Structure formats: structure tokens, C-alpha cells
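Structure first, sequence second, as always.
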């Protein structure tokens, strides 16, 4: 690469049934680049907590946010005058397929859907991530510092997702967000029933979808019970007891029931989302986030009461029947109830490059409807709420003392179509600078193509 980031190890534990801790599999090897102290001054700061600060300062030290607002800067600090500019947390996309549907978009790069069986919780998206995907650098130029890469939605249960820091590495482990919980991608509605119905196999209907989920959750409950019985026998001194056979599918589902793996559910219709919530209650697990949720506005109060996030598009609708009842005010309405968690996601290698503009469209639609949404509120849709969805809000997603210094300096109001990310910091290190070509990373793959073209 023209500019490459290399990283070392911070472990991520993988938990298996009955609470037994196994040596971590495919651990994160990410560690932040060395960084000095940086003081950003005279900026309009959106903290991601609902605050907007004018002519304010932010100090980055030791890779963390030291203070926001006013404070004493250490001697020798690098000062960036952000007069006329805006500062936000690094943007977070909770629904991306970068690396698993990499650019260029050819069949050989189609690694996101293991559609050999409607139930594949044993597959992990990270094992398909190609770190050389040029899409990562495009997202970085748009201010995206963290993203979740998910399997596709052709299956009832598609597999585990992975949360990445948007940094350059030769391996996906070098990008893995240390300690971020795994997510499980599930899908309801037209996608799985179309994929398998066309093959004349189950599921062919929505009732077949639900029956398929329930059968798997029953198996997962039995798997947990078998491991618990085994450990109980061991505790009594029964050394001849035999351990249950390890099952990678059921291991993932057991992790969901035990609250160790977060559920990210692709679902469009309000009635289906309510069915999924009932099923979660039946089997004792929690839905963390509904993705796409074109009809989420119809059940906004229920989502808030259940503590479920809605990761939604600003204005995608009508491209299939279950997406037909969408409205542009969807995100703004989901954001209204007390305790809500509205998120703007991309589901697109292009949309992730302008996530701020997608949020701006949703904000404008809400304001036209009289909902009076300010920038300090809307920025949460692509920062702190997104971090909550991924289970990393204690470490990133807002500009608060002690959190990771994932920071974007914008040329102007980030909700303007004219705004561009001027500088992007990840863990305090300057990862992207629009004015410095040496800080505009290019992957080895892309650099090779550019060199070939220039000959």
C-alpha cells in the first residue's frame, strides 16, 4: 500500500455452551497506531450525546478523548484550528457487506451468502472479508471509522457478523474491533422463502420461515441442557461422563440464548417484526436490532419499550412487496419515543461513502413533517446509537472523556451535501487527511491496478 497500517493483538474471547471459556478463535490483532496529542480548537462539536458545542475544543491524548469543551492542553500539543468546521464522532455503519462483496463486483468476490442450507449459523462473515477491498478506503474518506460486516440475507439464519475498525491491514484480524461481541445475522420475509421456494424446498412461505427458526431454537435449548448436564456430572466426580459433540451451528445459537451474541434481524414488515419479538420471548433470547425495517414506524413505541434498535434506510422502498409501505419519515418516527434507538445504515458499498448525507435526508424528512430534529440529535443515528447496536457504546460512538478518539473534522455542517470529511482520526491517529495524499490509503490491490494503468 501507499500507506499501510499494521497492528498487534488484543484478544477476543469466544464463549461456548454452558459458560465454558475456550481459547479464542481468530482473535483480533488490532492495536492502535502510535499517536501524539492533538488539540482541535474553535469548532462546532456534535458530541453524539445530544449536545452541540459552539467554538469549542477537543483534546486527543494517548489515543483517547481527554476533554471536550474547555480544558488545559499539555505542552507540545499539535493544534488544529477548526474555525468554521464541525467535529463529530467517527461514523459507524451497522450494516455493511464490504470485504464479503468486495470491489470490483465480480462473481469471484461474491462471498456473503452461504445459500447451501437455510440455516448456517456456523459460518462467520470475517472468514470471507477481503481486507484489500477498495471500498474500505472510500468509506474512510466519508468519515466511517467502524463498521459491522454481515453475511447476506438469503438464509433464515445466515451466520455471524464481525465489527471492524476501518483501518488497513493484511488480515481481517488486524481490523477486528477488540472485544466487540459477535452478531448473528437472521432474515425474515421474502428473501429466504424466495431462495428456497425456487428450489422447491423449505421454507417456501412465511409460516415455513417461522417453523424453521423455532426448530433451530429448540435444538439450541437442548444443546445448552446437554452441556449443563455434562458439567453437572463432572462436578459430582463422574470422570467417565462423555462430553456432548461440539456443533458449530448450535454453539452460535446457544450463544444467542445466553446473551453472548447479538441478534441482527433483517425484517421489513411490522407484523413480522412483532412475530419475531414473540418468538424471542418464547425461547428466551433478545433481538438487538431490526435491519431495514421499512414499516418500523408502525411499531416505534413497541421497539422502544423492548429496547430494540431500528437500523433503517433513509429512503429505500418499493423494490419488492414487503418494502412497499415505506415512508421517508420512518427514521424520524422511530426516533421519537422515549428510549428509542434509531440508526441510519447503508447496506451499500456506495451508500457507506455518504452516510452523513443519508442521515441528512432522514432529518430533512422529519423536519418537513414538523418533528423539529436538530443536528445534535440526528448525529446519534450514525454514531452513538449505532455503537449501542453493536455493543461497543462504552468505548466509542460519542465524544466523551476516556473513549476511543475516533473523530472526524468536517469542512462544514456534516448534514450539508457540500460537507466533506477533512481529517479522520482513529484511536487518536490521523488515518485520513483530504489535504495530504500520503494519508489517503490505497490498498495493494488497487495500487497495483493504478500502476498498471499508468504504464
Amino acid at each position: 500500500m501507499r500507506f499501510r497500517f499494521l497492528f498487534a493483538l488484543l484478544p477476543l474471547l469466544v464463549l461456548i455452551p454452558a459458560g465454558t471459556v475456550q481459547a479464542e478463535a481468530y482473535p483480533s490483532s488490532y492495536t492502535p497506531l502510535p499517536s501524539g496529542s492533538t488539540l482541535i480548537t474553535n469548532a462546532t462539536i456534535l458530541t453524539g450525546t445530544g449536545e452541540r458545542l459552539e467554538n469549542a475544543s477537543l483534546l486527543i491524548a494517548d489515543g483517547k478523548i481527554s476533554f471536550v469543551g474547555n480544558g488545559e492542553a499539555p505542552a507540545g500539543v499539535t493544534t488544529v484550528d477548526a474555525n468554521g468546521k464541525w467535529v463529530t464522532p467517527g461514523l459507524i455503519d451497522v450494516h455493511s457487506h464490504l470485504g464479503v462483496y468486495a470491489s470490483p463486483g465480480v462473481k469471484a468476490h461474491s462471498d456473503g451468502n452461504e445459500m447451501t442450507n437455510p440455516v448456517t449459523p456456523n459460518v462467520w462473515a470475517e472468514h470471507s472479508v477481503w481486507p484489500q477491498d477498495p471500498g474500505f478506503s472510500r468509506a474512510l474518506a466519508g468519515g466511517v471509522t467502524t463498521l459491522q460486516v454481515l453475511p447476506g440475507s438469503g438464509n433464515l439464519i445466515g451466520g455471524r457478523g464481525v465489527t471492524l475498525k476501518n483501518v488497513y491491514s493484511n488480515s481481517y484480524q488486524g481490523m477486528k474491533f477488540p472485544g466487540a461481541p459477535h452478531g448473528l445475522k437472521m432474515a425474515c420475509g421474502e428473501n429466504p422463502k424466495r431462495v428456497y421456494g425456487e428450489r422447491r424446498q423449505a421454507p417456501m412461505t412465511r409460516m415455513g420461515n417461522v417453523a424453521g427458526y423455532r426448530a433451530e431454537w429448540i435444538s439450541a435449548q437442548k444443546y445448552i441442557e446437554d452441556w449443563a448436564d455434562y458439567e453437572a456430572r463432572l462436578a459430582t466426580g463422574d470422570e467417565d461422563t462423555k462430553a456432548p459433540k461440539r456443533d458449530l451451528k448450535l454453539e452460535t445459537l446457544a450463544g444467542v440464548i445466553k446473551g453472548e451474541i447479538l441478534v441482527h434481524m433483517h425484517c421489513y414488515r411490522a407484523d413480522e417484526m412483532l412475530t419475531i419479538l414473540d418468538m424471542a420471548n418464547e425461547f428466551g433470547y433478545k433481538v438487538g436490532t431490526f435491519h431495514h425495517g421499512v414499516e418500523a414506524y408502525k411499531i416505534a413505541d413497541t421497539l422502544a419499550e423492548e429496547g430494540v434498535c431500528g437500523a433503517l434506510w433513509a429512503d429505500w422502498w418499493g423494490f419488492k412487496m414487503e418494502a412497499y409501505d415505506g415512508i421517508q419519515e420512518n427514521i424520524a418516527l422511530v426516533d421519537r419515543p422515549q428510549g428509542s434507538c434509531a440508526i441510519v445504515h447503508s447496506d451499500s458499498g456506495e451508500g457507506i461513502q455518504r452516510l452523513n448525507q443519508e442521515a441528512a435526508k432522514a432529518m430533512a424528512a422529519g423536519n418537513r413533517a414538523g418533528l423539529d430534529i436538530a443536528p445534535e440529535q440526528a448525529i446519534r443515528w450514525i454514531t452513538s446509537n449505532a455503537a449501542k447496536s453493536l455493543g461497543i457504546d462504552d468505548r466509542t460512538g460519542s465524544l466523551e472523556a476516556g473513549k476511543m478518539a475516533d473523530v472526524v473534522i468536517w469542512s462544514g455542517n456534516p448534514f450539508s451535501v457540500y460537507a466533506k470529511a477533512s481529517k479522520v482520526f482513529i484511536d487518536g491517529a490521523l488515518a485520513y487527511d483530504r489535504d495530504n495524499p500520503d494519508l489517503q490509503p490505497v490498498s495493494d490491490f488497487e495500487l497495483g491496478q493504478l500502476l498498471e494503468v499508468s504504464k
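Margin note: The longest strand covers residues 52-61.
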